[in-house]
Prior knowledge:
Elements (H helix, E strand, L loop, with lengths): L1 E4 L5 E6 L25 E4 L2 E4 L5 E6 L11 E4 L2 E4 L9 E6 L2 E3 L4 E4 L4 E5 L4 E2 L8 E4 L5 E8 L3 E2 L1 E2 L3 E6 L7 E7 L4 E3 L2 E6 L3 E6 L4 E3 L3 E3 L4 E5 L5 E3 L10 E2 L3
Parallel strand pairs: 1-4, 2-5, 3-6, 4-7, 5-8, 6-9, 7-10, 8-11, 9-12, 10-13, 11-14, 12-16, 13-17, 14-18, 17-20, 18-21, 19-22, 20-23, 21-24, 22-25, 23-26
Antiparallel strand pairs: 14-15
InterPro entries: Autotransporter_pectin_lyase_C
Amino acid sequence: GTIKVGGKQSVGILGMAYRLDAKNKLVVDEFGSKAAGQGKVTITNTKDITMAGENSIGIYANNNKTGSAVTNHIVTNSGTITVGKSSGASTAVAIYADKVTVKPENGTLKIAEGAVGVYATPKTIVGEVNKNLGTIHFTGKNAVGIYLKGTTADGDSILRGNKLTLKEDKGTTTGKIGIFYDLQNAQTSNIEIDAANANNVIAYYTKNKDLTVKAPITLGQGSVGMTGTTGKKFTYGDDTSATTNVMTLGK
């Protein structure tokens, strides 16, 4: 079905391996140790989730089961998730993924000003091998399609897939980023980014480490293929093919 929520800081779908009690403690094996599906996060969206309020989250998935593999907790989105803008110190997020696996399945994430499409905490896996990452549709400025987080203690989140498509509403101006790396290790990406229908976009941004991209990038007007913080090294292609890795610039 369809989910529509209008309040600020709301959540469309909340999935946790274990719920929390009134004292904020995990309720483990609530239905007995052998209850089917217990202790797993399984969320599937095939329709529409619309979060109109500021700083809202479409899907919040939290694997809070100690030692449980991220591959046991699955968020699948083949529908459309729409979130409003961010304000203050909070952030609107279409899919907040905490130590789970996100399967985009060609779904669409519509994100407004300051919002994030997928926020991946350390250890989270976003995407599937040999499958596309769906579409990020910017409806406002200063937004990020996929934000990958890493920490020294927990390691990096992981991005997989073939292609990410970026689109926009007219008038969204600047500050739009396709993939944002905030990781602890240098990265090599083989993911194509098609931003032909989005202007003033940064396809790849790296905050902490060097970045190599070995995939086509198609850009609209006023866009940048790769950039990041001062002092980082950017490498495009591998000098082995004249056609595989091509960056097409907008007119």
